[in-house]
Amino acid sequence: MESQAISASLKMPEVDVPKLTPDNFDDFMTHFTSAVRNVHGAHGDSIEYLLRDTNGDYNAVWADRAEKLRMCTRLTGTKFKHDAALLYNLYVQYVGTDGHGGTTVKKFATSKNGYQLHHQFLAHYRDESYLERKATEAEKKLRTLHYNIERPRFTIETYYTILNGIFNDLDHAGPQYSLNDEQKVKKFEGGLQNKDALHYYILAQTEWKALPAASRTFDGFYNIFIAKFSKFKSLT
Questions:
Q1: ∠ CA 3-51-106, rounded to 5°
Q2: Does the predicted TM-score (pTM) go above 0.70?
């Protein structure tokens, strides 16, 4: 009866999730996370909180209520068990209990603990060889990413967004691949092949280096750079 109640309360998200294959785990997980985000559980909010791998400080200052709930919602109790079962149902829906990935899902057929299932799923696919491959792909992208001229589909903002994605991939691959803020700024410079962008990069770097150490973040550098470069572009 409880299983039927859970199934009845699950509103299937209208999100296209590709079938999981040996080669598309990242793409699958991106779409699967979107599906999870669209399901509201026993707390009346998204069950995305079940995907987190760290617990936030409830008394800390958060950007908004949604972020606080995502990081601080309890991972115990009746409501948690209800939401974990919803997450399990999503895995059954998008992965199944047969075929690729199905063996891991099938282990939780009795407990329906989607929270444990999710983290075991990640541990299975994000093993050492996966992380090494991820880092290699990210480093290859770094070597080939350049900003030369402003184009409608590739602006300086596009360049920055792609770079941030690469840095995140390196972070996820492990501390041995992570870049500090100084290194990220240098990588930003390394792909600039536009003389005007390089000019404003130098100006921004000088201003950035004059900041207190705690304020010298990559995002802080980019904010200085883009303010100067955007003004130049608007004037020209």
A1: 45
A2: no
- From the centroid of its chain, how far is CA 3? 31
pLDDT per residue over 4-27, tens digit each? 444 444 555 567 889 988 778 888
Provide φ and ψ at 151, rounded to 5°.
Answer: -125, 155
| Dist. CA 42–CA 121, nearest whole Å | 23
Q: How far apart are CA 20 and CA 209, in angstroms?
A: 45
What's the one-letter identity of residue 186?
A: K
CB neighbourhood size of 157 (10 A): 12
Cα 111 to Cα 43, 89, 129: the distances in Å are 21, 12, 30
Reading the block at residue 126, the tokens are 């994000």
End-to-end CA distance of the chain, in Å?
A: 68
The type of residue at 5 is: A
